[in-house]
């Protein structure tokens, strides 16, 4: 990746944009969506946020123009130069211009506005052209299916060099407390976990920005940064579960959730948890666990839990129910959970309850870090 | 204009019509400032072609070969690839 000379960046995280005019090639709604989605490419991997305004001077002014359009860099008719943008700065700084003589589309015919806009907004944020042909910031247009678009590692490294990862922003709101930078001591007697899941035969323990990987046949535990595996995911994952039959792991934070297969982030995510069938008052998950025998997934929120049928992809009826009443000896709340060999393992603070799913009762009370051979 | 070391078989004028504006726009070639006293080996146009070939990972020949011309005609972003 490259950055502009003298590395201009925005000195704030919350940026504004304004769409000054529209191309007749696409509906207004399609233009709005393409632009919003293009900004999301960058907000997903940085602390940056992009808010649309409809009047006055935005940080990033977006317009369509033909030929000479007042900035000494005239467009050149069809093909050739498709668009250009300016590095962060006052006035024209950050602005993005699109050549109206091109055929703009919302799919892969013509030039896809989302793909070109995502590239130009990389410039608006301070990235220069990359020599990596797989990078979004490569100078030449490459027609890819927008629904399968993924930011390359080159692009992620570049933008995170300028602005840091998704949670590196100084905490301006209480829900973003500053995260510890030192690795967690898994053998501490007060060790707690944010979320736990299995993943292709390993057990993954999530804590702040870190994850601990435990291979069942190997006492060794490795502690890594979550962003090493999933750079576009935020830290502070709150719930996670694996659906082994689909080789998918679902990760939850606040009202969003992602699906990964190994280290591959599946397209179409993040989604909102409401899409699973939760009532609107549910804002976040405490824990989740999937039972591969019944095909049911249990979501734990406060004192209650919901049950979701993975086969029919729908929430079962007559929920929520109370955790303490359904899982005797467990409750009232659950902080993390995973399934292994006919048992759920429920985590509450520094305690862990082994729960037999056939006899429906707690069979052992363990320390939360019993898996680490401390 | 300069006698570029061009592969045989391509018409120089047509190629230059593609190359010069591209190199001016994206690689900072200053056509108006070309040195009058050309010393062997310091042909700015050749240097810019080599710079562009190097950026795109093409074989650095300093000539307007077909791969280079093809790359110059791809639709692309208007921001230059190199900056002063």
On the 0 to 100 scale, the average pLDDT of chain A is 90
> How would you characterize the largest beta sheet of chain B?
none
**Assembly state (oligomeric):** heterodimer
Terminus-to-terminus distance of chain A: 43 Å
Would you tell me the structural class of the helices and strands of chain A?
mainly beta
Radius of gyration of chain A, taken over Cα atoms and rounded to an integer in Å: 24 Å
The total strand number of chain B stands at 1
**Helix share bin of chain B:** 40-55%
State the major sheet of chain A. Answer: 5 strands, mixed
As a percent range, the share of strand residues of chain B is: under 5%
Biggest interchain interface, per-side counts: A-B, 25 and 15 residues
Low-pLDDT windows of residues of chain A: 171-179
Number of strands of chain A: 27
End-to-end gap of chain B? 25 Å
Could you explain how this protein is built, in words?
- The complex is a heterodimer of chains A (374) and B (84).
- With 374 residues, chain A is mainly beta.
- Chain A has helices spanning 28-43, 113-124, 153-163, 226-229, 323-326, and strands spanning 2-3, 14-19, 49-52, 60-65, 81-85, 96-99, 104-105, 111-112, 127-128, 195-199, 202-207, 210-215, 221-225, 239-243, 248-253, 256-261, 264-265, 271-272, 287-291, 296-301, 304-309, 314-315, 321-322, 336-340, 343-348, 351-356, 361-367.
- In chain A, the strands form seven sheets. A five-stranded mixed sheet of chain A has the order 3-2-4-6-5, covered by helices on one side. In chain A, strands 14, 15, 16, 17 and 18 form a five-stranded antiparallel sheet that branches. In chain A, strands 19, 20, 21, 22 and 23 form a five-stranded antiparallel sheet that branches.
- In chain A, β10 and β11 form a beta hairpin.
- In chain A, α1 (28-43) crosses α2.
- The longest helix of chain A has 16 residues, at 28-43.
- Chain B has 84 residues and is mainly α.
- Helix content of chain B is 42%, strand content 2%.
- Chain B has three helices and one strand.
- In chain B, α1 packs across α2.
- Chain A binds chain B through residues 4-5, 73, 75, 79-85, 99, 102, 111, 116, 119-120, 123, 128-129, 131, 133, 139-141, and chain B through 25-26, 55-57, 71, 74-79, 81, 83-84.
